[in-house]
Each structure stands twice: as structure tokens, then as C-alpha cells.
């Protein structure tokens, strides 16, 4: 039986590690869906030309690298709390500096230190899924410029098929420590109306939530694609 880890074990040590050994390319596409295979792309972020963009929970920074290479943002800051993910992103894409800035930090303290700095914040199954939204969403609102935009994809239901939560509560899900020990981590899988209420309480407007249906196959899931603006 696993235990809940409260230490600083990096529970993202293994994520994307095998892929990074063989696929070092900047992706040609940017997808929001769980399967990364279909659905809308970065156009959902609006025109990024000259914009300051932040990826919250960027992992290996593949989405951020795509934006830097295939769009014209002033800068994309790829933020991730995991030392392993930060190292992987640096190994893969450090040559895209200075327009890609790879930063190791928790999303909340980073955003709290960046008042009014960002035009666009986004997350692809990243920090929004694994951080208390009552801390993260107000911090994101404060870090956006007036008229700025937050867009994120998150699970529409648990991978088991169980429905998302009707309240703003996390569930413990299985994870692995760097040395392979079974443990648990917290994930927020919330129903559409819960996200809408939390975003509204954090000061966002123009909130939309779209369901991106899963492609057929094993371990697929529907995606919620959430978009909101910080008022002008
Ligand atoms: C499922 S991975 C997704 C990574 C990437 N967005 C992708 O699509 O490949 C989740 C990532 O979010 C990061 N993360 C979770 N909570 C975070 C937080 N509060 N601040 C920064 N990064 C966080 C983890 O370290 C992990 O790299």
C-alpha cells in the first residue's frame, strides 16, 4: 500500500524521461487534449506576437518551445517546480534562450512575485491540476496584465472514468518517488461549474469551458479546455 508523501521527493522524476532520450525535436504542433492528437491548438491563446507568456507546470517545455519557434512571442517563461522536469527542459531546449526562459519554481510563488507581468498564462495538464486552485487562480489573476488571458487544459473526469468532483476538493492519485517507491499525490479534477465559480471568485471574466472528447483507445480521457480573462 502506498503512502502520502509530504517530503520534497520529486514525484515528476520519471515523467517524460523515456521520450526525452529519443525525441529532442521542437514539436510541430501544440495540442490541449489529453491524447495530444486532435482538437484546437495555440490559436486559443490569441495573437502572441510580442506577448509575455507563461507556461504553468511546463514539464519538458515542449509546448513552450513550440510557441517560441512557431509564433512570435516576446518571451515564454516555462515554469516547473520539479528539479527533474527543469533539468530535462534545459537539456532539450536551452538553446532557445533568451526567448524561452526555463525556470524552476512553484507556480504560486512565481506568480506572486510577477504582479501584472504576463499577457498570457497557460497550462497543459500542469500546475492547475496539481495545486490548490484557491491559491493558484488568485495568484494567476494578479500576475496578468489588464485584459490578460488564462487558458488551461485539465481532466474532465478521472482516468478511471469516475466523475469529476462537484466541489473544490483534491483526490490522492498514485505516483512514484525517484527510486520507484509507490506513493500518492494530490490532483484537482473538478466539474465545469466548479472551475467557473473558482475563476469568478478570483476576479476572472469571459469564462468559457469546452469539452474536448477523448479519441477512442485505452487510458484516454475527455479534456476540459478552460479560458478566462482578467478584466481590462
Ligand atoms: C502532467 S505534467 C505536464 C507537463 C507539461 N505541461 C506537458 O504537457 O507535458 C505536470 C507538471 O506540472 C508540474 N507542476 C505541478 N504543480 C506545480 C506547481 N504548483 N508549480 C509548478 N509546476 C507544477 C509538475 O512538476 C509536472 O512537471
UniProtKB/TrEMBL annotation:
List UniProt keywords, sorted A-Z: Methyltransferase, Transferase
| Residue intervals of the Methyltransferase domain | 55-148
Note the SUPFAM superfamilies from the entry.
Answer: S-adenosyl-L-methionine-dependent methyltransferases (SSF53335)
Q: Which organism is it from?
A: Streptomyces kanasensis
- Respond yes or no to whether keyword Transferase is given for this record: yes
What processes in GO biological process is this protein linked to?
Answer: methylation
Q: What is the lineage of its organism?
A: Bacteria, Bacillati, Actinomycetota, Actinomycetes, Kitasatosporales
Q: Is Lipid biosynthesis among the key words of this record?
A: no
Q: Name one GO molecular function term.
A: methyltransferase activity
Signal sequence coordinates: none
Query: Matching InterPro entries, A to Z?
Result: Methyltransf_25, SAM-dependent_MTases_sf
Instruction: Quote the protein name from its UniProt record.
Output: Methylase
